[in-house]
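In the previous lecture we treated proteins in isolation. Real proteins rarely work alone, and many bind small molecules. This record shows how such a complex is specified: first the sequence, then the SMILES for calcium ion.
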Amino acid sequence: MTIAAASIIPATAQAWTAELPDPMDFGVVYEKIAFEAADTDGNNLVSEGEFARDAAAAFSGLDRNHDGKLTSEELGSPDPKKFAEIDANGDGYLTFIEIMNYKMKAFRAADKNNDNALSFDEMVSAVTAEVNK
Ligand SMILES: [Ca+2]
Ligand SMILES: [Ca+2]
Ligand SMILES: [Ca+2]
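The predicted 3D structure, ligand included, written as tokens:
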């Protein structure tokens, strides 16, 4: 998050985004923190299972009313284009399945050497690709 972007997000949103990785954010800001948090066995690789577990934890943290769906309100101020991209059925909610489909596609795209795990470099280049898209 740039300083300019942070200043337009309400303080309440900042408080919870500071605690949890945003499931829509592939780690643009929190790259290293997010990577280390996801790598639960500390082998410097985020496996598919670790990645999915991390996404699930982020999802349940953001789903404040626990209805199994994320609204754009629960997400703070998501990029509307990205929100629409993840919202596969266009109903204005992001379900866990929709998020996981998106995240696992990103995971596979980022896994350059096809070992079903992301190194930190692989994750960073995925983030860079996402930002420059
Ligand atoms: Ca690991
Ligand atoms: Ca949906
Ligand atoms: Ca890999």
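Summary for your notes: Residues 20-128 form a domain with the Recoverin; domain 1 fold (CATH 1.10.238.10). Confidence is low (pLDDT under 50) at residues 5-11, 13-17.
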